Amino acid sequence: MSLETIVAGIVLKHPIMNASGILGEYREHIARLARYGFSAIVTKTITPSPRKGYEPPIIVELPNGGLLNAVGLANPGKGIVYDLVNEARKYSLPIIISIGGSSEREFIEVASLADEFGANGIELNLSCPHAKGYGIEIGADPSSVYSIVKEVSSVVKIPIIAKLGLCDRVVESSIKALSGGARALTLINTVKAMAIDVYTMKPILSNIFGGLSGPPIHPIAVRIVYEVYRETEADIIGCGGVDSWESAAEFFLAGAKAVQIGTAIYRDENIVNNIVQGLQQWLYEIGAKSIRDIVGAAHKF
């Protein structure tokens, strides 16, 4: 059973990628992600200048299987891009540089380096829910999405993937991203949330708000992928709560051509192999020869 897929013109031997934000800002992280078996590496979000991020506590493990985090886009800055690309080449893996910015200029600054150094693609982070002035504040405005994607696409040759989060206008933002030059969409990012310690009576995270990830957001992410695919039939990477072959399969049926895994990596270092094997068995059982045969199949009913 073939699991090969093509997203934004990038050929993947199987459809399982890592999600940005889970490792991916140093050489040793790239090596570790390669050992896990991912078909492509997505870096942590890189901004032009280094960002320290928020003070601890920045992660809360929840009893429902989810994680709440507010890292604050901590990263070493654009100077690391060359090292990350070269490290991925050692493993013959495609590498996609995730980029964050608060203006068109900042996105272009890092995107140009990714293009120059030979990255396979760029993922524009237009969806981070806990960094003020970044992410979801941009992605929730379709006009801003269009402007940023269009400006970046005008200066780079490699494919652009727009990562969008949960908002009321996500379908409109998706359409605008595609019309601005995005070759694919990653849907979705973490969802803005918070946790309160009932004994101290204070928010647990130093930033108060963080991004909820893991199984609790999976049904929401599947719904967004379904709605956007129904309107656009775009190349989509499903992201949010994938922790089994079944949860990955839901994304493919909704319209995704690949998926990204984040929270589940913390709990099972064999998650990629387990999902790949599960998907192969599933395709055999339903009589499909390729993962591409079932993309969007839920729309046929």
UniProtKB/TrEMBL annotation:
Protein EC: 1.3.-.-
Coiled coil: none
Keyword Ribonucleoprotein tagged: no
Taxonomic superkingdom: Archaea
GO terms of biological process kind: 'de novo' pyrimidine nucleobase biosynthetic process; 'de novo' UMP biosynthetic process
Keyword Cell division: no
Binding positions (substrate): 44, 69-73, 125, 189-190
Domain Dihydroorotate dehydrogenase catalytic: 3-283
One GO location term (cellular component): cytoplasm
Catalytic activity: (S)-dihydroorotate + A = orotate + AH2
GO molecular function, one term: dihydroorotate dehydrogenase activity
Binding site for FMN: 20, 44-45, 125, 163, 188, 214, 240-241, 262-263
Cofactor: FMN
UniProt pathway: Pyrimidine metabolism; UMP biosynthesis via de novo pathway
Function: Catalyzes the conversion of dihydroorotate to orotate.
PANTHER family, alphabetized: DIHYDROOROTATE DEHYDROGENASE (FUMARATE), DIHYDROOROTATE DEHYDROGENASE (QUINONE), MITOCHONDRIAL-RELATED
Name listed for the protein in its UniProt record: Dihydroorotate dehydrogenase
Native species: Ignisphaera aggregans (strain DSM 17230 / JCM 13409 / AQ1.S1)
Gene from which the chain derives: pyrD
